[in-house]
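Example 3.2
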Amino acid sequence: MKFDPTIVQTRFASPLGEMIVAATPRGLAGLWFDGQKHLPAHAHWPHRPDHPLLAQAVAQLREYFAGERTTFDLPLDLQGGTPFQQSVWQALLAIPRGGTTSYGLLSQRIGRPAAVRAVGAAVGRNPLSVVVPCHRVLGADGSLTGYAGGLARKTALLQLEGAL
């Protein structure tokens, strides 16, 4: 992934663990659980908890984890991904809270039915955990599979949303 050189970050102590929240002038560009797979090298990004978009994102995350928010209202910057990854991430945004889908159905939704593995890889590289709801994607048999933040977090998120 490529990240804008103007990216800034802050941290958020979620009920599921510490999170890194990152933004560019275009929008929210990253939201990762500390230590999750595909976490970029972020130590050199300036720490700006006073950044308006980062403060707004943290406030919305607090509401989400408290069960007071069902959708996020934040500008997103997905430009760090390839066009294919971006199409998968956009399709993830269409999965409603409380709903789930499979990797196969997601690949059909983007018009690439034979690209199930590539879709799975793109889901795994989603830079905006929780906000771009990759946790709502299940295996073809409905099993909880693959989540860069760990299956315990995926389970907790789906329970919070009423999907399990």
